[in-house]
Amino acid sequence: MQPFTYVRASTVKEAAATVAAEPEAKFISGGTNLLDLMKLEIERPTHLVDVSRLALDSIEETPEGGLRVGAEVRNSDLAADPRVRSRYPVLSQALLAGASGQIRNKASTAGNLLQRTRCFYFYNRDMPCNKREPGSGCAALEGFNRMHAVLGASEACIAVHPSDMAVAMAALDAEVETAMPDGKTRTIAIGDLHRLPGSTPHVETALGHGEMITAVTLPPPPPGRQVYRKVRDRASYAFALVSVAAVVERSGDRVRSARIAMGGVTPKPWRATEAEYVLTGAATSDPAFSEAAESALAGAVGHGGNDFKIPLAKRTIWRTLAAAVEGA
């Protein structure tokens, strides 16, 4: 691990300004991802600004009927909150599907959103990786790519985003609040927070250097039944091969509205808007679910080892929709 300095921030403004003042400075909270990357010298910050003691650890009601989740709320606390469990069960289910209990006790809301890919080649400094070292190439394209993306990838990078929580938040239309070094704040739709790789996969989010996530706002819960389904290699904690968050509202034997988000198959939490369009007004039937699944994966491209994800994702969407409709 490279030498670094450390400071504990006392205010959000101080934290943002301190990171902004040094090009290689970073925020740290739970450290469940950053510390691993520092040990491997993939991340080499010269200065760490600890934001874990800031007063950003509460979950509050919003005037609109939603919830405002502080950036420092731990994943385990968010999953267990009675309001989240009753009004946003898809979020609670997604959180409990991710990581181990010990990691959820340390991982923060903001840290979960900003965790980096678990691509094997990103973690292996002996292999080329455009995300770790821009311009070096992507070893996954011709390598072991079983875990990699089939939607939204590029010739520069086919890594996936690992978060379960962010997939549920994408289905819920969450918004991310940030504070910038100049004291200004802004709100970012969660669909705009993460970037697709394109030719610059090392630029992963819309955040500027020193810009700090302070909260995530959940709008009032959408009508309908919420279901999160995750397919992984083992029952204990593992990253998703495919995950689907669905919210389906039915009226009689028709779908009144539907929201579908996917994880494990894309470089960012992925909203399947085409599938939602197909489902809206359709019969609550197997053919409609199949058509929606086909639509969601219409542009999918496999890279050999991950070809299986395309039919797997279709089946997972189908089963998630069927489960959501059953109780809607």
TrEMBL record:
Its EC number is 1.17.1.4. One of its GO terms (molecular function) is xanthine dehydrogenase activity. Keywords: FAD, Flavoprotein, Oxidoreductase. Pfam families: CO_deh_flav_C (PF03450), FAD_binding_5 (PF00941). InterPro entries: CO_DH_flav_C, CO_DH_flav_C_dom_sf, Diverse_Substr_Oxidored, FAD-bd_PCMH, FAD-bd_PCMH-like_sf, FAD-bd_PCMH_sub1, FAD-bd_PCMH_sub2, Mopterin_DH_FAD-bd. Residues 1-223 form the FAD-binding PCMH-type domain. SUPFAM superfamilies: CO dehydrogenase flavoprotein C-terminal domain-like (SSF55447), FAD-binding/transporter-associated domain-like (SSF56176). This is Putative xanthine dehydrogenase YagS FAD-binding subunit YagS. It comes from Sinorhizobium fredii (strain USDA 257).
